[in-house]
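PT: before anyone asks, these are the final sequences, not the draft ones from last week. 1037 residues across everything. Please model them as a single complex and drop the result in this thread when it's through.
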Amino acid sequence: MLRKANAPRPPEDSVALRVVVAIAVIAATTATLAQGVGGSGLRVAATVGIAFGFAFSHWARHRDGYLLKVGLALGVVIAFASFLDAVLGASTGSLAEIQIPLAELFLWVQLLHALDVPARRDLLFSLLSSLVLMAVAGVLSISGGLAVYLVVWGVATASSLVLAYRSEIGDLPPLVDVHGRLAEQRSTVTRPLIGAVALVLLVATAVFLVVPAAGAGRAVAFPAQLPSRVPVPDQGGLANPSLGADDPSGPGAGPGQQRASFGYFGFSQTMDTSLRGRPDDTLVMRVKAARPDFWRGQTFDLWDGRVWEQSDHEPATRRGSSPIELRGSVEDRAILDRSASVELVQTVYVERPGPNLIFAAASPQSLYMSDNAVFELNDGTVRTGVELSRGAVYSVVSRRPAVTESILRAAGEGRVARPGTVDRNVADRYTQLPEVPERVARLARDVTASSLTTYDKVRALEAWMGANTTYTLDIPPLPAGADAVEQYLFVDKQGFCEQIGTALVVMLRSLGVPARLAVGYTPGERNPFTGLFEVRADDAHAWAEVYFPGVGWQAFDPTAAVPLAGEPFSSSAGTGLVSFLAGRLPSLPAQAPEVLAGLGAALAITLAGAGAVRRRVAKRRALAARTWPDLFLERLEVAGAERGRPRRASESAIRYSEALSTSVLPDRRVADLGHIIETAAFGPEGVEDRERRLAESVLHEAASASPTAGREP
Amino acid sequence: MTSSRVDVAALPQSFGAATDLAGALTENLGRVIRGKAEPIRLAVTALLSGHHLLLEDVPGVGKTLLAKALARSLGGSFGRIQGTPDLLPAELTGVSVFRKASEDWEFRPGPLFANVVLVDEINRATPRTQSALLEAMAERQVTVDGTSWDLPDPFFVVATQNPVEHVGTFPLVEGQRDRFGLVVEIGHPSKAAERDLLLGAGGAEALQGLRPVCEPLALAAAVATIRTVYCAPAIADYIVDLVAGTRHHGEVVLGASPRASLSLLHAAKAGATMAGRQFVVPDDVRALAVPALAHRLMLRGGSDLATASGIVSRIVDTLPVPRG
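LR: through. Structure below.
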């Protein structure tokens, strides 16, 4: 039994099968390499080596190759040793650092295996390991670029499976063939192939829409990576290369220090609301998270009527190595310690060099990062000590209290904050205001006159602003000496998030409600194919955070719809698929008639297609009902007919093959084919697969040796 | 009542032995009948298929010689009947004789009680004698004075007839011809074979020196073994189609019977065995269709074997072989 299982398989002669398998393997390999796996040596070795390996395997398929096998075994041992070396040498010992060496090990094994794939079974094994590589690439991938590889790999894999299956049932199209016949045979490969691909797409889409979104929380390892370690000039301070000369905290306005088109002036130590100009739609980062949230960078607590500023100038240093445990603000910590909270894990992939801020949902608890020190401000926001350039990856675990509307309404009712308590300290710090213009304070009082709770006050103010001001990016400059909030509420009556958020904070503070301005990014658009939120520069945002005693800080924003924490956010992997696609298709209403016509046509095609599929299924069943001797006799007949010796209907396979062997297919072994066919057809036990394959290869060789060209029919 | 029947199922069945036996028989016959491989092959096929053989040809081509050689090669008992108009059925089957000593009737078996029975010039016997003979061939038993006697096993009849002579003959009717599994025409020898014959090779001298190649029991075992040769459903369909072809042919009044299908199948199994195969292929059927079917057809313009053979040949050459 064992001996039979390990017996050498007959070599695979089909070049077509070998080529499609090679394409699948190379697609999977390059897909993995494209995720930043491996150095340049592995890149060259993998791309060139696998192609060479397949060619070599084909050439050497009839050889024993013991030496080669020994060499390959040695190679695998070396690859494994280097993997172990990489793993043991990993600095932090986190699982995330094994990911890349493991992918490299996979690549090496795939490369070495390519050198020794003589038989069909080996080819199919290679195909299977390419599936693993594809999965590795899928895990590492953060962009839709994988789709290209996936399509190539999928088509090649499906083709090889169809070819292997056809070869198995003896229906592999002869490679030496006349054009007409070949075209017909080809359609018997293409059609099931198209069917298989369509079916896979259908099933995959269905599964995609049903399975829950993974997010980053389910990952075994939290990715963290720094392509380069460049310390920021001012440790603990803020550096934002994307602001260039505009950065008030920068080293100075040097010539050529142009602000990048995507730099947002809010990511600075101060935020001047008189500044205008918005970033473009440059992709700045991708965020892997199970649900959308504000990706907060920092908050401002000091307001002077025009400019927001931070009071904390001495951030605390937090040390550690993956993860770095953060403390959070005093109030956050007090609340998280005693109330139910929800956790959100997010992994941020930096696409453009930006500020050294850790963007995360409130409130970050631990940070996975390839650096062992960060700086935490007393509001719970975090700055890094190194520049976050393109390719930097960090993961943050955030927690915040689970809240609902009713909890927020009930918060702080009937409680008086005694001096020295957390609530009192927060109130003291976050209600301070400069001289507020009288009509602003009056407006706040008037609008909230009928509101009993803080939550209702916030809602009332939001509603008033929504009704009486308009959101626009295009507002006039702030006149010198004017109060930004007054100007927005009573003069311009239009503004964007800084104005709206600031007005909300200032009015709430005037009512004695603790509030602050937070800056960061809105969730961005979720790409359903990668499952990642794509955050662009113009997603940069400012919003109000309001403190509820006993509940904590809660973000409010009339312009961005972000669910409250604790509200159920159910999503599948395919959530947003339609809106994602719709955003990339031309707007529909203008072309409604064409769209309807198109839908009608699609329906008609679908119905016609269903009929065709049914006929096709019937045909395939008929084909599947045909036996090997029948099909193989047909190949013999084709080979004979093409050379001018068709089989007579009453001529048995034995006689026919004997006749061919002495005429148009002058190969002694051809005479035996009839016996094999008839033994398979009429014998009580048929023939073994081995004999079938032998027969197929004999016919193939005889046909190759005796081409149709140059013969008179 | 005596029984010489053998329980063939209890015989050692060996496929290889059956093939070897066929080879030995063919070789033995070849020593006597020179240059006639095909008739010899057909004769051996008929023998191994368990059906009777009719040799039909002009005088002097070796019909009787072949029949004798066959009988001699088989060992066992040999009976010979010369067909004449005055031959009586009792002379074939045997008679009951009153013995004074025992004061009882004692059955004296006739020449039919043998493993191989040569019936020479069968068409010279009267229809009454013919039907007694043919009944014995079909039933493998004879009934004398109300008592049935089993014929020995194996029981193999080789009959000869001359189709050209009509004076003083009683041609076998179709129903009687149907009892023969195969009809073989020997034909004139080639020049080389005839020259060999003149120079003393083969012929009657060789017949004298012929040794039996097997025991009767071995032949019975071989016949039983051959019946177990595998016939694929597609082959059975093919035989059915062939036979149906003779029934639907325009020149044929009465086509081949289901007995014909069965005897063609048995012959094909024997043919497969002789080729060392344990399953029937279309070529086995094709090669035996004419000798197994042609003599059973009743044609519109009077039955003659040559025309019927032509019809069967054409059916074989136009009917597609099964593909499996």
